[in-house]
Structures
1.
Amino acid sequence: MPETIALDDLIRDLLQAVGHDTDREGLQRTPARVARFYREFLAPVATPVLTTFDAEGTDEMVVIGSIPFYSLCEHHLLPFFGTATWATSRAIASSGSRRCRVSSRRSRGDSRIRNVSRSRSRNT
């Protein structure tokens, strides 16, 4: 797989450029591990199937808290993580954690995760 070799080589070159000896035991397999992580983490994620139910006559908010998420900062390609809170007046509460997971599985800034989740909830 040519792209695998190219990404491994790029990561090896990066480590060498900042002064690391990529032939030492602890770093020999690091370029392959990092390349595999980026390929898996940044792979396209399917849009979740939304589960809804009839909430006619209900005027209360549904709030789900402490939804864990993790992502990569689009400016630094460093991981960040946290918890999200999902609130909706519509009957789609079970989709909150799936939406958060899908929104965070792309490299982006933390404020964009918040804004993407918010705008998608308004459009459904």
2.
Amino acid sequence: MLLEFEDLTSHEANLEYRKHTKFGHLIIAGTVQNLMVWKKLNANTQRGQRGRVWASIEHTAADEGGRRGYILLADAANGDEGSATVENDIGYMVFYDGEYYHGELKDGKAHGNGKCTTVIGDVYGGEWKDNKCHGKWTFTFASGEVYDGEWKDGIGFEGTHTFGNGEVYDGEFKDDIKHGKGTYTFADGDVYDGEWKDDIKHEKGKMIYDANDDWYTIVRGAWHWWQNTLSDGFNSEC
């Protein structure tokens, strides 16, 4: 029993399908966008039939082999790996949660340039190496936040994070949090420039208050993270 895209929005069709299959759903989606629509349905959650989804996906004319279809297995037990349409060149990789990758592939892994799109609307991509972020990357979150930075072997270490409220951090990262030297510009124009540790201001730094006004105050010194204050510093007004 097959489900074509016209049936994807039918909760009853999904339930009927589950009665007849022992090996998971086979979705004739056509495009990864259609498959994503199906993954969003309440009828298809992580408690899906044996955690397996077979999907028929078509390449675009610019992809390897031109416009043709491929059947992929997206398995919850191997959800982090994904399933690629082709081993090498440009194609798709589909994940069990509905996320998909489109770009360059090598040995069935993301390798080269490409981007991922998640079911909640986050888009991230850039340079890849063996399924890991490696090189320049851009994350555009559904919330409006944007991160542009450098990654190596799946770990981000430097970049610019623009938050939804307009605040910006530009500097070093460790494990996806502020760590090292960096500058944080607040929505009101105040600026902190200095050292960070575990996402918190740390050690030497300076606060520049009212930087967008006609005057400003610079406070330099040692930052006490447990009090969120500077000490042993001095002020200068301009």
3.
Amino acid sequence: MIDNRIVSRFKAQIHNHPQKVELYLTLAKLQELQGNSAESAQTLKEAQRIASNDERVEHALNHLKEMHTVYKELIGDRTIAEKLIVRVNFSSLIQESPKVSPDNKRVAYIATLGNKQFVVVDGKEGKLYDGIGVDSLTFSPDSKRVAYVAHMDDKQFVVVDGEEKQHYDGIGVGTPIFSPNSKQVAYVAHMDDKRFVVVDGEEKQKYDGINAGTLIFSPDSKQVAYLAKVGNELLVVVDEKDGKQYHGIEGSNFMFGLIFSPDSRRMAYVAHMDDKQFVVVDGEGKQRYDGIGADSLIFSPDSKQVAYAASVGDKWLVVVDGKEGKKYDAINVGTLIFSPDSKQVAYAARIGDKWLVVVDGEEKQRYDGIGVDSLTFSPDSKRIAYWAELGDNQFVVVDGEEKQKYDNIWTNPVFSPDSKRVAYAARIGDRCFVVVDEKEGKQYNSIINIGRGIVFNSPDSFYYLAQKDNSIYLVEERSDGRQD
């Protein structure tokens, strides 16, 4: 703990000191170390007020931020702390390459230098290569590791934590992947005319082909599965054991046709035979349909139920454990979810030109559109939120109540751990901000909506990544002004 006498001494020296702002900044840091966040925020506001009228002190304030020192301020009842993560040279950045770590605190992207490319992680530049796979850049689930595909001359190889692995003729699209425990790395490689999976450097069985985007680990990290091709037939491979062959299994064209249950004991996928598609669960084929919605297949959190979207003629319906729901003109397959307690199912459906949310068969209000992947249940499974579109406006709907209308809803709504609060990012014109309890926060150029968007770490605190000019900041907020 910082001695109060030291803090008092700084306060006494500030008045009329030629380096007033530097002392204010030091005082703010001391107050923060004492645990006096509110006083620290007020001191920083005073430093900022002075800096706004003095180019020299403004430079000092910016320098402090660049050194990754936390900068705080108060907006209403919200304490906002900003920490610089990286300054981005947007002229060299490759579009579509930025990735955010699962904990939403780190940023990586691919940049160019002349005719070479390199990866930048939290501002640290990696080795130059002839090229890097734009979609290959990935963080481990624990956010501590980074992997990607690079190529030099005529060979491709995986780079894990800066270490180059074995060189091959090519590396499969959608790989590398980390195991859920972050300890293992797997990818698809090809040499000559054969494809095979490599797990932690060990080459597995060779096949005529392996479908892109189908390589997965089980949630317990103990099993590896993928879709392989032998001649003109497709089969499921689990831990090097070949399953039944079908004319086609949904999994090509970047579709993820394989899923494990959350407890890692069950598996499901979509198969194709005689112009029909059907779900296979634990090796057993289910009802056949004209089509199965890509990426709609899910297990319930308790691993006991399976749900998916299926088509019959020109109509779509949701199937839960073999029970068919109402037919609609379309099902937004990216919205199908179970509640955390596994007792409810929700999804977005279309009737004519209007979209609506369906919760356990109950149809909600109709809109021009429903945000893809925006449906979310509260942790206690009692509430539901999503964003919708009507005319030129977008807005969040919580428990059937429409919230403030904006030009855009920038991130999907999230509930706090106690299920009482809802947060999301919205945009008006060229400014973006986080809305909590219907109160708008500080404005930024953008709130980063790659990855998780906004993350609550307690009922009263949350964080997100935000862009100001060419800089990305980790923004942490605390607010005690909850509305129960």
4.
Amino acid sequence: MPTPTIARGVCTTYCGQSPVTRSKTVLLLAVALVGSQAGGARASWSPPSALSAPSHLATYPEVGLDSRGDAVAVWMDATPTVNDRIMASARLGSTGAWRRPVALSPAADFGTFPELAVDASGATVAVWQQSGTSQGNTNLPFIEASFKRSPTSPWSRPVRISKRGVDSEGPEVAINSDGQAVAIWFTAARTSSAEVSTINIAHGVWSKPVVLQQTRKVILWPEITINQGGEAFAVWKRYIRHTGGRRIGQGDTQWEVGAAVKPAHRSSWLVRGDVGREEEFNLQGDHAQQQPGPQLAADATGGAIAVWQAGTSSHILTDFAVWKAKLRAWSKPATISQVSALWPQVAASPTGATTVVWEGNNFAIQSASGPISSCCWSAPRTLGSATPPQFAPYLSVVIDGSGDALASWTAGHPEIALRIGSTGSWQQAIGLTTSNGGDADAAMTSLGQAVAVWQQPNSQGSAIEEAATAPN
């Protein structure tokens, strides 16, 4: 069977579909003021309220928080007459009021798949995939970025950070407490690559792209993180083989997990292309933005962990590898869950308290925790289950500085669960809406500051909603 390739100039993700052909959705937002949780009180989430404009098509929301509770949200937004644009809205924690959304990308092109990173002081970076003829890309998708230096400052003018004339897609971005940010994406042409660019928000200039790995086989869905010391970590997957079907994702598919580390105060990356082997069952990897891929987290002292699907197509598990800072090497892959584990996600606190969540047997959402050194994982715990019972690819987990964790997932109804402390029990999952929803994201900086966003279908268009309440 010949090796599947990505043809030059052929988009592998959403690249300019007319907005009127997609179902209308409403983008919702809920804020939880969890408080001290004294006496085991449960988190109380506010009713959702709209942020995006009425009758728009709002999808793919992302959200971030700073240490004061200032929030930023970005999303894709379209009307029947205006292509997808990247919109952003900000909320000051002191007032609780969301500002009117502003456009980050031009109306003439297609701005899609935004990603967001916010540091403790409120400095924010957004990246997205832009498709169109602007900035000399002759209709090939490229990566654009914009930033703001504080919660009240304006957004910078968007700039292209990927190479001119190269099909660039799937961006991700991370930032640390010093305003050092790093973005990553993949390219699709006769060869495929994982590439990165960095910026210091105070200086405001992006570096030229650096190629981490380049191959004739497909590279997809890179992830990036950066710790407080300025050490950056990246992971991605590279196609190996598949059985059945003519496209990647049609049939069981195997991928090689690659990784790279950039030590602080160094310009070069330490790259390893074979950290582990990812496994996907038939049609799981279908070029959707929520398809499987390795995930990544790091602590403040140089440790990092990558997780991914492993095993066989009929028995998918969750594997992990740990970056050993003193040895400057990745550990051998090991298994966290011995039972079915799909779409694993990972988060770590600055002290290395690590939590992994995944979807297990019978659509149960499960979790395991331990130190980032991976010496001793807890037994898997069930947080809840997908509602209605089906696959839940919109799965995420975040951790604050004290080890409190917030997990969210969406199969049809967006749900969220809170854990107090790195070794505490998960509270009963809360449904954020009783009707069907879509892609969700969450952020938390402390038990008193958390926010969740998701997309919600309706009959008219799209909006984003917000409200706040105290804990029960």
